[in-house]
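Final report, closing paragraph on structural work. Over the funding period we assembled a curated collection of sequence-structure pairs, and we close with a single example.
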Amino acid sequence: GNYNRISERIPIHQSVNNRIIELKENKEVTGIKEFVRLKPIRFDDVSFGYNKGKVVLKNVDVEIKPLRATAIVGGSGAGKSTLLDLFLGLLKPVSGVVYYGDIRHEDLNIATLRSKVAYVSQETTLIDGSLLYNLKITNPKASKAEVKDVCLKSQINEMINELPDGLDTEIGENGIKLSGGQRQRVALGRALMTNPEILI
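Its predicted structure, as stored:
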């Protein structure tokens, strides 16, 4: 009986052990210099490819200036998401350098950058609960004034007035009771609730 119980658990042990090895092999290596706000972020001759044969970005030179809106446009597969992943340090350039002010990407403590960034993706994920709960999930201690300010900035005031219980309205699993545009605005409000220095 003991042998059978052990035999049943061997695949679980192997799976967990393989995951631990994978995490160690792919551990993120980061520098020690802290991100400095209000500095331009510059791509200097940056190239990147997922496979050796296919280059997604080649010799890219871009400067993203602070306190401005920057649009990255292009067709499907042009490398827009890859550029953002390089910006966030989720990917490392094959060649070239990403500068954060005067700091090279390999010298930057990437956590100090990511703590200043809010990201709103095309795919919005909301939690079953009230609209207020979903807005404050990134900042549970936000005051009523902060919530009001975020609602103005993300333009969801009109939507709140139409909902039966206002901010206390239950929005359902993944915001099923809201339209796609409304869900996107809630996601934007949730991101702004962190008062980010950089909004993607």
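The chain is about 35% helix and 15% strand. The radius of gyration is 22 Å. We thank the funder for supporting this effort.
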